Amino acid sequence: MLYEMDRFLPSVEDKEVRREEELEIFSKLYRTNPIFRALIHSDDEECYDLLVRRLGKIPEKIIRRVLEFGVRFFAGGFDLEIKPSKLIIEAGGVCLGGYIPEQRLCYLSKEAFRWDMPENLSLIPLAHAFDHSLGVDHCASSADGSLFLWHYLECKADKIGHRFISEYAGKGPKQYFAQCMASYFSQDSFCGRERLKWEDESMYFYLDSFFRYYIKCVD
User: Fold this and answer.
1) Mean pLDDT of 21-50
2) Contacts of range 66-70, beta carbons closer than 8 Å, 24 or more positions apart
3) In this predicted structure, which of 18-22, 40-44, 125-129 has the lowest mean pLDDT?
4) How many whole angstroms separate alpha carbon 172 and alpha carbon 157?
5) 9-217 has which fold?
6) Which pLDDT score, from 0 to 100, does residue 188 have?
7) Contact (CB, 8 A) for 129 and 104
8) What are the sequence ranges of the domains in the chain?
9) 3-7, 30-34, 50-54, 189-193: which has the minimum mean pLDDT?
10) Strand residue runs (E) in 64-173
């Protein structure tokens, strides 16, 4: 409903604060941390810079795990043979990006960095890669007995307090995990952390405890 959506529309002040925070994160990580140079491949400097700013919101331990798992992230301009994959992000029939498990490859097109695209869209391919790294031979989110899968099924059954945060999240358990993880680490006003907490509160708190434990305890 309209009144529910209004609470997520950003003010001019919010946008300015977010931009300053992004620039501060980018400045720190871009100059001191080589991990992004190893992970991201792009012929488009603007796309590279934007992606670094957005991935900078994800804890380094998670990014390092993905990198050590052998994942590469291609952004913007690139000449690459993309294998078919079900983990594709689309808008209006246009492919914006995705993740290919067989190649351990994340990718985003230039269209994914347009000003009118949600910022957390850039985090979804990496979330798929992290999910894959947890399961190794498969994605952990779709494994039998997975609590991620249980939360997905609760949303699918339209249980009280469980709603898919986006159309992409409703496509399957892998897409559900990736969207929720991307939203958890995003301040995007339309599909970010606050929206996740509002729409799918139990998944929000499960992710919160999961990532706190992972960052603190997992080697």
Assistant:
1) 75
2) 66/39, 66/126, 66/129, 66/130, 66/133, 67/35, 67/38, 67/39, 69/104, 69/129, 69/132, 69/133, 70/104
3) 18-22
4) 13
5) Collagenase (Catalytic Domain) (3.40.390)
6) 80
7) yes
8) 9-217
9) 3-7
10) 72-75, 88-91, 94-100, 105-108
In angstroms, rounded to a whole number, what is the distance separating the alpha carbons of residues 186 and 206?
16
pLDDT mean across residues, the chain: 82
Nearest to 155, CA basis, from 140, 167, 139: 167
CA distance to 130, 169, 205, 206, per residue, from 162 (Å): 23, 12, 12, 13
Distance (Å) of CA 209 to CA 58, 144, 201:
15, 20, 13
Q: Nearest CA to 42 among 140, 144, 112?
A: 112
Residue 24: pLDDT band with limits 50, 70, 90: low
User: Model's pTM, two decimal places?
Assistant: 0.82
> What pLDDT score does 78 carry?
60
Backbone phi and psi for residue 73, each to the nearest 5 degrees, phi listed first: -125, 110
Phi, psi angle pair for 77, to nearest 5° = -80, 120
Residue 97's beta-bridge partner residues?
89, 108
- Residue 186 token pair: 């995003």
- Identify the pLDDT of residue 73: 94
